[in-house]
Amino acid sequence: MRRWPMLGVFGVALLGLAPGMARGAVGLTVSELLESSSELAGKEVTLEGELIGDFGFRGDGWMWTQLNDDSYVSTPIREGGVPVGGNTGVGIRMPISLGVDLDPPGRYLTRGPIVRVTGIWKYHDEERQGESYLEVESLAVIEPGRQLDEGPNWFVIVLGVSLVGVAAVFWVTRIDE
User: Fold this and answer.
1) Which CATH number is 23's domain given?
2) For a surface tag, which of 48, 116, 132, 174 has the fewest beta carbons within 10 Å of its beta carbon?
3) Residue 104 — pLDDT band, cuts 50, 70, 90?
């Protein structure tokens, strides 16, 4: 008999962990969203990924950026990731108030913030000249952005030391004329 109250507590906890899902949002990858774009038009969806590129702040109170969820999000190339295909992302539009405190977006040597966004999928939106994008209603930062370490380029270092060594040998063994 005591099982039912615990199930209720467990259910409330699950709702708190996934606010987008609690409202009926469909959790997808960007690839799944793009494959089913027309069927998901006007539906609420949840995506997770890295914000990349630039933050385009507009005078109408909205900002635009790109959300990628490809393999480079979990393992950037600069941290041992292997190049596996192209980037997979989708444009997102959100109120500027959601993006004010975000770390800079990802680019070379910068890992953008990893976020979970929930919003309405706008497929070929007539109000935006046929653009497809996610109009974000909520955003949660999963992991803050950070700088990536480029590390030394050992090929260049070895080549440079070798050339200096060759020059030193020529200098020491030069023939005076």
Assistant:
1) 2.40.50.140
2) 174
3) very high
